[in-house]
Amino acid sequence: MRGNNIVKVLFGFMLTAALVIGCSDSEEASQSNDLNENESTEEQENNENGESGDKLFDEVTELSMFNRNHPSWPYDEDQYIWDWLTEKTNVELDMMAVEGSNYTEQLNLTIASGDMPDIYWALDYNIFNEYGQDGAFIDLMEYEELMPNMFQLLEDDPTILQNAMAADGGLYMAPSYNDGASGRRGYLHREDIFEEHNLDTPDTWEEMYEVSKELQEIYPGSYPFIFRSDFAHFHMITPQFDMPGSEFYLDPETEQWTFAPVKDEYKVMVEWLNTFYEEGLIPPDWLSINQEAWQEYIMSEESFMTVDYNGTMLTFNPTMQEENPDFSMKFMPPPAWFEGAPQHNFNADLVERGMAVSSLSDNIEEALTYIDWFYTDEAIEFVTLGKEGVTHEIVDGEVEMLYDTQADFNIETGVGNNGTFLVLDDFQNLHGFAIPELEESLKVIEEYDAPQVLTQPILNSAESNETSVLRESISTRYQEQIGRFIIGERSLDEWDEYVEEINDLGLQDLLNTYQQSYDRLQ
After folding, report:
1. Element (H, E) at 331
2. Would you state the pLDDT for residue 369?
3. What is the pLDDT of residues 386-430, one digit of tens each?
C-alpha cells in the first residue's frame, strides 16, 4: 500500500511543483467549444468581425513569438488561453514553440539566421543580456513611453531591475515577477504528531534541536529533520542564518559582493548540521536523498520536519489521509539561528524569465505595447485566474474556481503556460484549489520572506568568460569541504584553513570583478 502512496505522491508532486504554472494536453482541445459557450452571442460576433471593444489594439495585430515547450506545461495551439488573450488584446500570435532541451540551440539558430520572431519567451538573464549587448534584442530602457506599467513596477521595486539589468545598463528582457509566490519555500512539520505529543514548534535552531531529540525518543530510529537534493536545497536553509539563498550576493549594508560559504554565519549553519548529523537527527544519506527517498521518510513516520515547497502539503495530505485521517503536514515558521533573530524563509519572487523583443522586428511598438499590458492589474488577474464565468466566479468578493482540481484547471485552459504572463498574482487568488492546511499557510507565509538582494553579478561578455571557470572551481571546492565538515570527515576547528583554501583559489579576484561591474553601473 505504501508503494502505491509513493507513486501517488510522486505524481502529485510533479503537478504541484508548477502550482500556478499549468500544463496542457492536446487531447483536451475538443472541450474548447464547451468552455466558450458562456460567451455572449454579441461578444462572439465582435470577435468574428474583428471589432475591438475595449481590446488593447483597435485592429487585429499579428505578432510572432519564440516560446519554450516544456514537458510539464507543453504548448498546444488549441489551448484556450491563446484565444482568450486574443479576445483581450486583439493580438494573434504566430508561435514558434521549441522543445525545452533544444531551447538554447534553437535560440542561437534564430539569431544567427536573422529570421527572428518579434517576441521571445526569455530564460536566463545572462544569455539575453549578452545577446542584447551584441544587438540582437532591443534595450527596453529606451522605450519608457511605450511601457509605463513595466517602468512603474521597476520604480516600485528597484531590485527587479537590478537583477535583470545588463552590464551596459541596458534592460533586454521585460522581467517576470512574483510567479514564484505560489511555489514559496519554507518549513513544514507533521502537526498531528506534534499535537499528539504536546510538542511546540521551534522558533530557533536550538529549539529545533531539542524537539528533534524528543521526537527521536518517541520514535526510536527516526530522523526528525530531513531535506532532499543535498546542497541544492541549502538555499532554503541559509536565510535562517541571515544570508540569502545564494552563494554570491551583494551585501545590502556594505554594498560589497560577498561569498556566503566563508562567512561566520555559514559556519554556524554548518555546525548545526554537523550536530544533527552526528546525533542522527538527519538521515546519514542526506547527500544522496532524492525526491522518492525523501517522500518515503516522511510517509513512513521516520521524519517529521522538512524544508521544501510550501505546496508539498497539497500532494502529501490528501493521499496520506486516505489511510490516516489524522495525517497533517502543515507550515512551520522558519527557525531563527538565535533567539531574537529574524525568522526568514527563502524569497522566491524573483525568477529569471521574461519577454524580449528582437531588434529586427518590424513590429517593435506593437510588441512593446503587448508586453506592457501584462503588467496591468487587468492582465495579472486574467493570466492568473482565466476567464470569469468560465474558469471562476466572484462570490461575495471571493474567488470560487469552477474546477474540482488545479490540475484540471491547468490542463484544460493552459492558463499560466510559458509565454502567457509576466506577473502572476499570489497563490491566494487560487485558494479555491487549496486544502485547508495550505490555505492557512498562505495567509502568513509572506511575513517570513527574506529581503530581496542582488544575487547575480552584472557582467559584460569578457567578464563572464573570465570568471565562469573560476566560479565553478570555487563552488565545487566549497561543496566538497562543507560536506566533509557536516559528516565529520573534517574538523570545524579547521574552518579558518578552509576559508584560506577558498581564498587561494582566487575568490577575492572573483569578488573584485563582481564589485567592479556593480560599481560601474552605479
Report:
1. strand 329-332
2. 98
3. 999 998 888 888 888 888 776 677 778 888 889 999 988 755 455
CB contact set of 306 (below 8 Å; sequence gap of 6+): 187, 188, 189, 225, 226, 227, 228, 294, 298, 312
Residue 322 has pLDDT above 50, yes or no: yes
How confident is the prediction for the chain on average, in pLDDT? Answer: 86
Letter string b/e over residues 154-175, b meaning 16 or more CB atoms within 10 A of that residue's CB: beeeebbbbbbbbbeebbbbbb
* DSSP tag of 282: S
SS3 assignment for 166-218: CCCCCCCCEEEECCCHHHCEEEEEEHHHHHHCCCCCCCEHHHHHHHHHHHHHH
With 0.90 as the threshold, say if the pTM is over it: no
Give the residue among 128, 142, 64, 125 at the shortest CA–CA distance from 97. 64
Take residue 174 and report the three cell numbers written for it: 521585460
The separation between CA 172 and the C-alpha centre of its own chain, rounded to angstroms, equals 21
Among candidates 449, 411, 405, 413, which has minimal Cα distance to 430? 405
Please give the Cα distance from 24 to 335 (Å, whole number): 38
Q: What is the pLDDT of residue 24?
A: 34
Question: d(Cα 297, Cα 304) in Å, to the nearest integer?
Answer: 9
Q: Which helix (H) or strand (E) holds 408?
A: helix 406-413
In angstroms, how far apart are the furthest CA atoms of the chain? 77
Name residues whose C-beta falls within 8 Å of residue 64's C-beta, 6 or more positions apart in sequence: 93, 94, 95, 96, 117, 118, 119
- Which cell numbers in the block locate residue 113? 539566421
Cell triple for 431: 485558494
Distances (CA, A) of 373 to 93, 291, 421: 15, 38, 10
State mean pLDDT over 130-152: 96
Joined grid coordinates for residue 212: 528533534
What would the grid cell of residue 115 be? 529570421
Separation between Cα atoms, residue 154 and residue 35, nearest integer Å: 36
Our measurement of the distance from residue 363's CA atom to the centroid of its chain's CA atoms, rounded to an integer in Å, reads 31
